[in-house]
């Protein structure tokens, strides 16, 4: 891939900055006033909650659930999924092992330091622009599928239960994503297999985000505003600390997580495939002075070298193709080079 092999500057771990006890944050993390987090009047609104208890593998016979999913994807781009079939015990164990990793000594974590070539491993920045304003967060990025990219040796060896727990978690969420994809396809008026077929084959990866305590949370963000470049994201958030904000019209809404729920959001690839029937929506992450926060973003993406454009059946005389085609490999280079930049990337695909 067309990407630099090394970071343009020495990487500083945000956790180290937090642990230093400094009363201020470095200038590199101070956002322009227009980009800083705030609480809007619209914050009293809640994103949809969808009960998946009746969503079986035979999604064609789950009309009410399918319509609830489709409605959320059309009007919000986000929803909270409850009764999704993933064990709450597994969700808790996954959070616990990853929190354990981020609390290991720095020299142990540094064994997995990543590079911008693949982003795989322990990282502290997105984007390779020298002098860029950075986000207040560290992360660990890894692959599940295709199997040729998954390498257990690149996953942390400690805590001892991490690799086994991560395998179990990845299998459970991949199964959930396959059900959701079929439901989203029917919600577009297509056959259940049509949207998955457009992916050709699935690419599955995960970024575990760790947002340390911040002495000046009003000046920075844990993750800048962006829409996800992939297909669909299933997010497991911290069970004690809020931080995710979703843009709705001109307001930023702080998500209040439902216990044992996943937060599901549409990515840019599904917006393109659906010809904008489903919307990928900007979101960002606030940080906290009193508490650290951990989240696990599970990305379900199309095969990376297949051109992705509007599905033929969704292109009509009244609604022509709104986007030109591009492979996911080429598409994700944007965020890997420039970091999160709102929805500027998907807008660049709009047909003339």
TrEMBL record:
Which terms under GO biological process does the entry name?
defense response; negative regulation of defense response to insect; regulation of defense response to fungus; regulation of jasmonic acid mediated signaling pathway
The protein's required cofactor(s) are namely: Fe(2+); L-ascorbate
User: Which is one GO molecular function term here?
Assistant: oxidoreductase activity
Give the reactions, separated by semicolons, that this protein catalyses: jasmonate + 2-oxoglutarate + O2 = (1R,2R)-12-hydroxyjasmonate + succinate + CO2
Q: Identify the PANTHER family for this entry.
A: OXOGLUTARATE/IRON-DEPENDENT DIOXYGENASE (PTHR47991)
- Keywords in UniProt for this one? Iron, Jasmonic acid signaling pathway, Metal-binding, Oxidoreductase, Plant defense
Protein's name in the database: Fe2OG dioxygenase domain-containing protein
């Amino acid at each position: 891939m067309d990407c630099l092999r090394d970071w343009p500057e020495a990487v500083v771990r945000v956790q180290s900055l937090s642990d230093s006890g400094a009363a201020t944050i470095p200038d590199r993390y101070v956002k322009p006033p227009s980009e800083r987090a705030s609480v809007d009047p619209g914050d009293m609104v809640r994103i949809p909650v969808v009960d998946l208890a009746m969503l079986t593998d035979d999604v064609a016979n789950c009309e009410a659930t399918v319509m609830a999913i489709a409605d959320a994807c059309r009007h919000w781009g986000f929803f909270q999924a409850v009764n999704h079939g993933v064990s709450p015990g597994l969700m808790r164990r996954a959070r616990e092992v990853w929190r354990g990793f981020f609390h290991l000594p720095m020299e142990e974590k540094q064994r997995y330091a990543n590079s911008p070539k693949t982003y795989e491993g322990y990282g502290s920045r997105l984007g390779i622009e020298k002098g860029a304003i950075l986000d207040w967060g560290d992360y660990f990025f890894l692959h599940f599928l295709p199997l040729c990219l998954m390498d257990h040796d690149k996953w942390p060896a400690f805590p001892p239960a991490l690799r086994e727990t991560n395998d179990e978690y990845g299998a459970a969420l991949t199964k959930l994503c396959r059900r959701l994809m079929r439901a989203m396809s029917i919600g577009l008026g297509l056959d259940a297999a049509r949207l998955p077929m457009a992916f050709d084959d699935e690419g599955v990866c995960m970024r575990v985000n760790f947002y340390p305590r911040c002495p000046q949370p009003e000046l920075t963000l844990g993750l800048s505003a962006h829409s996800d470049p992939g297909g669909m994201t299933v997010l497991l958030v911290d069970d004690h600390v809020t931080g995710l904000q979703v843009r709705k019209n001109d307001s930023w809404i702080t998500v209040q997580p439902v216990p044992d729920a996943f937060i599901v959001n549409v990515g840019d690839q599904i917006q393109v495939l659906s010809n904008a029937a489903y919307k990928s929506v900007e979101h960002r992450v606030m940080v906290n002075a009193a508490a650290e926060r951990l989240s696990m973003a599970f990305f379900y993406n199309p095969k990376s070298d297949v051109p992705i454009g509007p599905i033929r059946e969704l292109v009509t005389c009244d609604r022509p193709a709104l986007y030109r085609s591009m492979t996911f490999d080429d598409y994700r280079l944007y965020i890997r080079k420039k970091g999160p930049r709102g929805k500027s990337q998907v807008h660049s695909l709009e047909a003339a």
